[in-house]
Each structure stands twice: as C-alpha cells, then as structure tokens.
C-alpha cells in the first residue's frame, strides 16, 4: 500500500490510540470482535479526549449492528443534515422535479412595443446563470419586442422572503456558503453557488491599484478597492462585504504578474441581482425597459419565455459532492410549496419530516430547522442517519442518491467531491461513498463502505465538542471498515492517516468545498 509523503509523515491514529487507556465514551457491547476492538482504539485517540462522539456500523444486507458507541445520542450533524433533505425531497418532489423561471406579461402588444409591465418570475431555481437570463432575454427580443413601457417586476414570491436560516452564524453571512435564499436568484458558476458573485482581483502595474472584476458583471454591487499591485511577494488580498449592503471591499496587495485571486461572496438580496442581470441582458438584445425595476408579487400572466432547470436527480451531484447549502434550502422551500405551504423553512421541514417514518425514523426524536445543516440548532443521532441510509437502498432512486455521494480518494472533483483528497492510496479509495459535514467543533461522516469481503456496510460517525478536526479518526474508521473481512476478520493496524487535529483557523474546520480547497 503506497501513501503520500504527507500521510507517511502524519501520526498513526490507531497506533497512538493503542497506547492510551482513554475512552471517548462507554465501551460498546459488541467490541469483543476484532473490528470492535480496532474501532474502540481509534475512538480512544488522545486528540479525541473530551469530545462527544457517536458511531454505528451496520450490515447493509440485514441491518445487523456490527458496532455501536453512543450512537443513540443526538448531536449537531452539520452537513449530514443534507442526507435527510435529499432522501425526503426525492420522495416528496421526485427525481424528475425541475425548478421553473418565466418571463410573463399581460401588457397589450402594439407592434414592437409592450404597453405595460414585464414580470420575471422565479421558481426557486438555484442553477440559474447569467447565460440563462441572457437566453430568456434573447427569446423576448426574438419575438419582436423592442420596448417595454412599464416596469421590470421581479417576482420572488414562490418562496417566503426570510433569507437566512434560523441559527445561522452571523459572521459567516458574507460568504457564499451562507448566501441568502430567494426564489429568484443567480449563480456565478457551474457549481451553482446561488446568491453570490465571484470577486476577481488581478494585478495592475507595480505600484498601481489592483484590478477588480465581478462575475457576473453587474451594477447591483458597489466595489470599494484599495488593493495595490506590489512589485513582488505573495498575494495578501482581503475581500469582504459590508453587512446589510452590497458594498464589496477589496484591500491588501497582489504581486505584479500573479494569477488572479478569486473570492466568492454572498449578495444582499439576490433577487435584485437577478433582476439587474436580466435587465442588462434585455438591453444587450435591443429591448428597452422604460420603467424602473421593482421587487413585488404579481398575478399569473401570459408566458413569454420559460427556462426549466436540470432535474433534481442531476442537481444531486453538485449538491452532495460539493455540499452546496443553497441547493438544500431550495429543496426544502420547494417542498413547502409542493405541499401547498408558504415556501418557508418551517413548512418545508414539516413537509419533509412527514416522509421520515418510511425511513424508520420518528420525526419527534430529531430536530431540524434547515435543510443544509448550517444551523447549530439541528439535532440528529448516528442511529437515525444509519437507518435512513439503510432504508434508502430500497428506494427506486437509490442509484442516483448513491452515485451523488462523495467517493473517497477519487481526484475528479465531481466524483470525489469533499472526499477527493482523503484516503487516497489506501484500501478505502473508491470504496467509501459518504457525506461529510464539518464546522468548528463539529464533524460527521456517514455513508456506505464496500468491505474487503464484498459486504456492503452502512456507518455514521458524528462528533461534537471537538478541538480541531477529527477527520483523521473518521478516515481511520472508514479505512478499517474497508478492510473488514467478515467471519475471517482479524484485528489489524490501520494505515497512517494525516492527523488534522490542529488547525490554524476556524475556517479550516469548514467543509473543504466551502473554502474552495477541494
């Protein structure tokens, strides 16, 4: 087995654990077997002392419990919440569900003139790009319309107008992974980071200001740029957004000749950005809107142009591989509307929870307030997560769900996802399909492992009250499960895994996709 130099120089999590008697919780009733002994040792690592950790391992074919430790205790599941959201949305909305965006108008048409308002109506699509708004504008122009005498009405009433989830951290508010949820939004990239823009900082001439561009280009945001171009050195650029505004501040320095520095930032009120980009697209295609742009609800009107999103079955790939929070919230609010609700979080969560008994989960025994797991108020147990993963295997959409999970050690970003740089070169590479989840003090890894004897295993490990990241222990658990040999299993040392328990900043404990580091 070949490991990277980083892995070879890391700490041996299991061996370190074997020399300590510290236990991260009460011993399991099934730890007398070799697998149980090894997992007990992993969870006894000194770096986990004082943490609250739950782990359960079950056979996928029978549901038999192979290992359990404090797996019935509720904890913050972080992005493992997305497993509940995904399974429930697939059952409630269906894999073929598509979000719809329309351009409508009841205005009287007089030659090339629409004598009234035009309505841009959002249906919650988190995959809308500037190119999609351009295509809608092109359709309007192709119909012969040259002038709209009324207003451009941006209707985001398909969802409620509560933009940020309950319990979301205020200091994450400027960052794209904490963007505002709107039924009319726009993404700057094909990761579909809805409600955000890319701020691209490039060097100018030495001693001169740095250059700043927004993607998509727009006049909705204001840029205050004090960044300079240094003759040499390393890039030290800071990008921020003033709270409650769309003023982007750029400071620091970037050396001459350096590659552009990019930061993805959340927008305040993304409906306005979508409306602004669409208005600009109309102008490029020769359609003048004489009135102002407003955000308001409008009655249904004749449809002039339509854009349907990719189906949910395809959205699952960027959603789960890259742990995209905005996709989760769009699914929750869409589920609310599908059940006749207001398009809000409370209605959406209640709608999704109604399907949980079919997965062997009592909704009264967990607590969810959002779809992404960003909230510190979400509470679930490893047992509940494992039950969902087991029951999902019997669903007609399971193949799509399984394929959308990150795969350990596979470098392709849209295959490996948030596990692409973990467990590479080990027996677990390509064998672990699991959802990650992490922010400061919390980490989770839950999914499926194909063991050495071909047995499919289901596992869920949720850690709270950690100091630093327990990813090394998660990797050790996943690797040991991949080495499991059933009746012929023997206790064995787990390969060296890089210990990441020490982190330099709270942002290092976030999902790697949120910091664009994987």
From TrEMBL:
This is D-alanyl-D-alanine carboxypeptidase/D-alanyl-D-alanine-endopeptidase. Keywords: Carboxypeptidase, Hydrolase, Protease, Signal. InterPro entries: Beta-lactam/transpept-like (IPR012338), Peptidase_S13 (IPR000667). The gene is dacB. It comes from Amycolatopsis minnesotensis. One of its GO terms (molecular function) is carboxypeptidase activity. Belongs to the peptidase S13 family. Coiled coil: none annotated. Residues 1-24 form the signal peptide. The keyword Hydrolase applies. It comes from the Bacteria. SUPFAM superfamilies: beta-lactamase/transpeptidase-like. Pfam families: Peptidase_S13.
């Amino acid at each position: 087995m070949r490991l990277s130099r980083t892995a070879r120089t890391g700490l041996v999590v299991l061996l370190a654990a074997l020399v300590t008697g510290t236990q991260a919780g009460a011993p399991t009733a099934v730890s007398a077997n070799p697998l149980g002994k090894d997992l007990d040792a992993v969870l006894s690592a000194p770096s986990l002392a004082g943490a609250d950790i739950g782990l359960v391992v079950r056979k996928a074919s029978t549901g038999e419990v192979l290992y359990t430790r404090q797996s019935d205790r509720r904890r913050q599941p972080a992005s493992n919440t997305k497993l509940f959201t995904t399974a429930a949305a697939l059952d409630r909305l269906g894999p073929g569900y598509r979000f719809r965006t329309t351009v409508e108008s009841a205005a009287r048409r007089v030659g090339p003139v629409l004598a009234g308002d035009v309505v841009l109506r959002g249906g919650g699509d988190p995959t809308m790009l500037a190119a999609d708004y351009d295509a809608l504008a092109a359709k309007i122009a192709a119909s012969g319309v040259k002038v709209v005498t009324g207003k451009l009405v941006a209707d985001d009433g398909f969802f409620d107008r509560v933009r940020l989830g309950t319990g979301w951290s205020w200091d994450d508010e400027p960052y794209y992974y904490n963007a505002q949820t709107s039924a009319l939004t726009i993404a700057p990239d094909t990761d579909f980071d809805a409600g955000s823009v890319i701020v691209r900082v490039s060097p100018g001439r030495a001693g001169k200001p740095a250059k700043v561009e927004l993607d998509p280009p727009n006049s909705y945001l204001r840029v205050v740029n004090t960044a300079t171009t240094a003759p040499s050195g390393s890039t030290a650029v800071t990008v921020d957004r003033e709270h409650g505004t769309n003023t982007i501040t750029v400071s620091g320095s970037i050396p001459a000749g350096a590659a552009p520095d990019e930061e993805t930032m959340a927008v305040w009120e993304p409906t306005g950005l979508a409306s602004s980009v669409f208005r600009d697209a109309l102008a490029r295609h020769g359609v003048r809107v004489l009135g102002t742009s407003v955000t308001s609800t409008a009655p249904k009107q004749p449809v002039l142009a339509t854009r349907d999103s990719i189906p949910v079955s395809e959205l699952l790939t960027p959603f789960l591989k890259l742990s995209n929070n905005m996709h989760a919230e769009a699914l929750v609010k869409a589920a609310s509307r599908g059940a006749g609700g207001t398009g809000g979080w409370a209605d959406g969560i209640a709608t999704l929870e109604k399907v949980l008994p079919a997965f062997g989960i009592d909704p009264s025994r967990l607590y969810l307030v959002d779809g992404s797991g960003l909230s510190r108020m979400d509470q679930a147990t490893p047992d509940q997560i494992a039950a969902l993963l087991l029951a999902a295997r019997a669903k007609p959409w399971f193949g799509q769900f399984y394929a959308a999970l990150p795969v350990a050690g596979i470098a392709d970003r849209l295959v490996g996802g948030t596990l692409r740089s973990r467990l590479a070169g080990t027996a677990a590479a390509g064998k672990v399909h699991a959802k990650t989840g992490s922010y400061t003090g919390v980490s989770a890894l839950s999914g499926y492992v194909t063991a050495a004897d071909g047995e499919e295993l289901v596992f869920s490990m949720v850690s709270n009250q950690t100091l630093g990241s327990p990813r090394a222990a998660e990797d050790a658990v996943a690797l040991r499960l991949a080495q499991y040999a059933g009746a012929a299993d023997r206790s064995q040392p787990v390969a060296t895994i890089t210990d990441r328990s020490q982190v330099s900043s709270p942002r290092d404990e976030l999902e790697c996709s949120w910091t664009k580091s994987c």
